[in-house]
Amino acid sequence: MRDLFSDSVEICPGMVLLRDFADSAALQGELESVLMAAPLRRMQTSRGSYMSVQTSNCGQFGWLSDRQGYRYSDIDPLTGEPWPVMPVIFRQLAETAAELAGFPGFRPDACLINYYQPGTQMGAHQDRDESDCDAPIVSVSLGINARFFVLGSERRGSSIPVNLSDGDVLVFGGPARLFFHGVRKLKFSEHPRFGPVRWNLTFRKAL
DNA sequence: AAGTCCCC
DNA sequence: ACGA
């Protein structure tokens, strides 16, 4: 497709960062529409504690966590309705980024929306609730900067730090598909359009 | 364990 | 470290 895009960095084998690849303003408008139909909520973990991030979903399937554990569902438990349709520009961005990163044919059926405010963090975890781990994960950052970190196949050990800014797209697949990763406690800063918050869109092939 | 707590 |  477009080998024209030069501002890409290989973080580790299977993990590619496309810097400022996404049209942040265009995604922002679609995001607002999605959230009107599927509002943000705070998910509970299986042991009863709450995640600091607030989440929603769009696409055929949405990621859920509650006392039953983690899973994908085609129904939003908050509204009882199917999740909002994945906007065309969301899907096209994810497919193009995956192809550029070396994962052609990616067709996401789920988009998890994570909302971070100052103080929000995401502990080290693996994305392992998808049936097809041959498909990569495409992660789009919007709003203020965040300090992302990557471990390996084990939770312990040293991490690779990655600064993620508005419009950055991180693709991880192949050997990095099941790597532990997370987001450090978000530091206060402001973005001209989004204000003092960060959004993350992660595209997956859930089923 | 996508979190919390506790000790160095 | 914990117990999933």
TrEMBL record:
A GO cellular component entry from the record: cytoplasm
Keyword Metal-binding tagged: yes
EC number(s) stated in the UniProt entry for this protein: 1.14.11.33
Keyword presence, Metal-binding: yes
Superkingdom classification of source: Bacteria
Listed InterPro entries: Alkb, AlkB-like, AlkB-like_sf, Oxoglu/Fe-dep_dioxygenase_dom
Cofactor stoichiometry and binding remark: Binds 1 Fe(2+) ion per subunit.
Transmembrane segments: none
Pfam family, one: 2OG-FeII_Oxy_2
GO terms (BP aspect): oxidative RNA demethylation
Alphabetic keyword roster: Dioxygenase, Iron, Metal-binding, Oxidoreductase
Domain Fe2OG dioxygenase: start-end pairs: 107-207
Broad class of enzyme this protein falls into: oxidoreductase
Name under which the protein is recorded: Alpha-ketoglutarate-dependent dioxygenase AlkB
Organism: Granulosicoccus antarcticus IMCC3135
Gene (name only): alkB
